[in-house]
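Supplementary notes for students who missed Thursday's class. We covered one full example, reproduced here. Read the sequence, then the structure, then the short commentary at the end.
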Amino acid sequence: MRALASFSLLRRGPRSGEIGSVSGCPLCGGASPPCLACRDELRARVASLGVVAHVEAALN
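Structure (token representation):
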């Protein structure tokens, strides 16, 4: 019997106080607009949720 190895990729988000942490980034301090690292983190979160695919499916 073969054992199937299952791997999943987990993305570790930045912790509070790290660069790119939306809640406590030392670069932007929660300012509006956020720094580039926080923008990248927000884009990655939206991409990981698959929001675009859900919206496309809902509209079609």
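Commentary. The chain has a mean pLDDT of 77. The helical segments are 36-49, 51-59. If anything here is unclear, bring it to office hours.
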